[in-house]
Amino acid sequence: MDRPGVVVMGAAGRMGRLLVDLVAQADDLRLAGAVVRPGHAWIGQDPGRAMGGADLGLRVTDDALAAIAGAQAILDFTTPAVTVATAALAAQARAVHVIGTTGFAPADLAAITAAARHAPIIRAGNMSLGLNLLMGLTRRVAAALDARDWDIEIVETHHRHKVDAPSGAALMLGEAAAEGRGTSLDQLRIPAREGITGPRPPGGIGFAALRGGDVVGEHEVILAGPGERISLRHMASDRTLFARGALTALRWALDKGPGEYSMADVLGL
Ligand code: NAD
Question: 267 CA to middle of ligand 1, Å?
Fold first, then answer.
């Protein structure tokens, strides 16, 4: 059988470059498209050459529709607007859509859910194995501790280029903690603190975001109780781990039917 064709959206981005590289190196996948934003300097060039390496035998394009039409899968770490548009193209092409993009509004998520009626979509604000394990631990610890006594705070640190906060992974950890408490994050999320905030609402889940330098990503779930404190922490030291996670998700989804899946599904957690 032919190797499945994979399109990388945002091929010139920080994650996109790593994904192009990994797909090109994989002997079970074929790089079928490298898509960049309209007007990008790479358009018409070989993506391998554009990154200073060897030819990969295709041309960078800004035509997502043409690139996706003949592909079996799409790797997408871009922006919410690009990802929502790409989900519609993936649905038409019945192609696997692996979404690493973060910062979606509720309407974006509804559009992605609609697209998942026609093609498999795997969406994860963080594609690392360790972070997804941390989610399971957070759910269990939150379930074990009395919400009246134990406050949950989630602290994340990322590089200075990150444009959304809290991070997608921090929100997923918050969702896991809320699930552990038998409800959803909507019910428990404490708005960002500034000025006279009043005392902490009991049972709420708070977030704090730090930005600076080249930090790949750190997440800490703090459970503060009477006289003691638990801290669950994950640190990513190399962004390639997210790209490898995306390829794991892609391979897993190739024989799956339409639907919206998470990394927990992929990793069997
Ligand atoms: P980046 O800004 O380096 O890359 C995004 C790329 O998308 C840019 O190159 C931009 O030019 C491109 N783009 C914009 N419009 C486009 C269009 N119309 N068509 C094609 N490409 C277009 O950012 P990044 O650090 O690579 O992160 C991208 C996203 O992935 C962010 O939302 C980030 O939070 C998320 N992310 C997720 C994970 C995870 O594990 N899920 C890990 C790292 C980053």
Answer: 23
Decide whether any atom of ligand 1 lies within 6 Å of the 37 Cβ. Answer: yes
Ligand 1 atom closest to the CA of 161, numbered from 1: 25
pLDDT digits (tens, 9 = 90+) for 209-220: 999 999 999 999
Q: Measured from the CB, is residue 86 less than 6 Å from ligand 1?
A: no
> Residue 269: what pLDDT?
79
**Please, which pLDDT band fits residue 268 given cuts at 50, 70 and 90?**
confident
- pLDDT at 1 (0 to 100): 63
For the chain, what is the HEC assignment? CCCCEEEEECCCCHHHHHHHHHHHHCCCCEEEEEECCCCCCCCCCCHHHHCCCCCCCCCCECCHHHHHHCCCEEEECCCHHHHHHHHHHHHHHCCEEEECCCCCCHHHHHHHHHHCCCCEEEECCCCCHHHHHHHHHHHHHHHHCCCCCCEEEEEEEECCCCCCCCCHHHHHHHHHHHHHCCCCHHHHECCCCCCCCCCCCCCCEEEEEEECCCCCEEEEEEEEECCEEEEEEEEECCCHHHHHHHHHHHHHHCCCCCEEECHHHHHCC
Is there an atom of ligand 1 within 6 Å of 102 CB? yes
User: Using CA atoms, how far apart are residues 88 and 97, in angstroms rounded to an integer?
Assistant: 10
User: What average pLDDT score do residues 146-169 get?
Assistant: 96
With a 6 Å cutoff on the Cβ, whether 83 touches ligand 1 is no
Whole-number Å distance, alpha carbon 159 to ligand 1 midpoint, is 14
Going from the Cα of 229 to the center of ligand 1, the distance in angstroms, rounded, reads 36
Catalytic sites, residue numbers: 158, 162
The CB of 79 under 6 Å from ligand 1? The reply is yes
